[in-house]
Write a structure and sequence with these properties.
Helix content: 40-55%
Strand content: 15-25%
Radius of gyration: 29 Å
Number of strands: 20
Distance between the termini: 20 Å
Shape: elongated
């Protein structure tokens, strides 16, 4: 009896487990060398020849052409980490890969996958308790937030800027959108622009859109602006059906021209009479209307994409209007200043202050596309972790110190666990050692010697990490050197890595259709 198609391929038992575990480990290994301040970059070239150079784990995994379903689960770990807390993607992926490696060894020792899964979940609960014990008791102030941002960006591509100088911009941006209801992370945007040194990166109190005025005679800047956003074409209306009109005399031609001119004049008059100083429209503006509005010193931008129109509306408080005759003062947004500027080869509209000041933009500059792309990723991660730290109010030591503390607590608790599950719990602790071992390897230290020294320092001092300061690498308290991470980044890494590893370990049958 044939249940499956003849073209189907089925892998069962130990072969299926080995295949899945091998795939997961291979993906994790591909990003391992990017971990830490001395991590290396990866160059990814797609089939079209486009190049991405980065050490961001989520970006690397998403750019790779991964087909194996188990390997895809590791990619999902990084994606989940990125979505929830914005950083720690490489850590999460590497831990997941090493949990799989430890599980493979246990399976070879005839430990049942269910036992491994139960042990891993119990170890993860112990790990979460250990993270809570590592939380810094001090209040999360601007100095700690700056350290969180700097720790996140150290080792990433930041062009000619130092992580320290960028951290100040990041903290200022997040503080700007911190309200009684929490941090409105979506109100911080990052806008990249090629054509200047990365030192020109700045914080703009408002938003930036890639648009230019529709007429050269329009003002380049408007102060204390009243802003209208239209979904209206300011031009001669045309029908949806192709049609031709026969004109038999010059009088009929003049009448048609007069009607067209009257329609355009009415558009310009309606906008001018509304009291709007600046108009953004998602449709086109006829040249004659643009000229008339320029004569009224009204600044107009046409052809906005829907996302830009929504961004301007959200930032300024304007209401989008679909019928010009419905335009009223109540629909207007407000901004202290709107300016049209040419930056590099592009024309940009800066919407600053007033209602727009509730949204801020990190205006990222760089000499090449690769520089601004990597800088954008670094700043985006830093914004996420600072927002996370500010909302939770909890930070833990970085530099591998938290992983050392977690592993130590898990081994201590494992002694009280009966049966083979104790082996899985201990294996979980061994898997966490990959973080300090990798940090050591990436700094040029011997991983085994560094791990032994870190454990000894943790036992004697209570907190020890592999701290990198310039060319010097020491074992010390990360808090003393400002190397800190949000506690939620560590929690999410442990939880997502555990979920992915246990899901893969439980698979003993793979059925693939051709």
């Amino acid at each position: 009896m044939f249940i499956l198609s003849e073209d189907s391929q089925r892998t069962q038992g130990r072969d299926a487990q080995s295949s899945n575990i091998m795939a997961g480990k291979a993906v994790a290994e591909s990003v391992r060398t990017t971990l830490g301040p001395r991590g290396m970059d990866k160059m990814l070239v797609d089939s079209g020849g486009d190049v991405v150079i980065t050490n961001d784990g989520a970006t690397i995994l998403n750019e790779m052409d991964i087909e194996h379903p188990a390997a895809q689960m590791i990619v999902e770990v990084a994606d989940s980490q990125e979505e929830e807390v914005g950083d720690g993607t490489t850590t999460a992926a590497v831990i997941a890969g090493n949990l799989l490696g430890e599980a493979e060894d246990l399976i070879e020792q005839d430990v049942h996958p269910t036992t491994i899964v139960e042990g891993y979940h119990q170890a993860a609960e112990i790990a979460l308790d250990a993270i809570a014990e590592q939380v810094n008791e001090a209040d999360v102030d601007d100095e700690i937030l700056r350290q969180v941002a700097e720790s996140s960006m150290t080792g990433k591509g930041t062009g000619g800027l130092t992580a320290e100088s960028l951290a100040e911009t990041v903290v200022e941006a997040v503080r700007h959108v911190n309200t009684d209801e929490g941090v409105k992370r979506d109100n911080v945007t990052v806008h990249t622009q090629i054509g200047a040194s990365s030192n020109a990166t700045e914080l703009v109190p408002g938003i930036i859109v890639d648009e230019e005025p529709v007429h050269d005679a329009m003002p380049n800047a408007v102060e204390d602006a009243s802003i209208a956003i239209l979904d209206v074409e300011l031009g001669v209306r045309t029908g949806d059906v192709d049609a031709e009109y026969a004109i038999d005399s010059i009088d009929q031609l003049n009448a048609a021209i007069d009607a067209e001119e009257s329609e355009l004049d009415n558009y310009a008059e309606t906008v001018a009479d509304s009291g709007a100083d600046v108009v953004f429209t998602t449709e086109d503006v006829d040249d004659r209307v643009a000229t008339a509005l320029a004569n009224e010193d009204i600044l107009v931008f046409e052809g906005l994409g829907d996302s830009d129109a929504r961004k301007v509306a959200s930032a300024t408080g304007a209401t989008r209007v679909g019928v010009l005759e419905d335009l009223e003062a109540d629909d207007f947004g407000a901004a202290d200043r709107i300016a049209a500027e040419t930056v590099g080869d592009d024309d940009l509209a800066f919407v600053e202050g007033g209602a727009a000041a509730e949204t801020v933009t990190v205006f990222v500059r760089g000499g090449t596309e690769h520089v601004v792309d990597e800088l954008e990723r670094a700043i985006g991660d830093a914004l996420d972790v600072v927002a996370t730290a500010l909302e939770s109010g909890e930070v833990v030591p970085g530099a591998g110190a938290t992983e050392i503390a977690i592993a130590d607590k898990i081994r201590e608790e494992a002694a009280g666990i009966e049966g083979r599950k104790q082996l899985a719990v201990t294996a979980f602790a061994d898997a966490l050692d990959v973080v300090p071992r990798t940090l050591a390897a990436n700094t040029g230290w011997d991983p085994i010697d560094a791990l032994v020294d870190l454990r000894a320092a943790h036992e004697s001092e209570g907190r020890a990490g592999l701290v990198t300061d310039g060319d010097e690498v020491t074992i010390d308290d990360p808090f003393e050197h400002g190397v800190v991470d949000p506690a939620d980044v560590k929690r999410e890494a442990v939880e997502s890595a555990t979920e992915a590893a246990t899901m893969i370990v439980r698979i003993d049958d793979v059925i693939a259709a051709e």
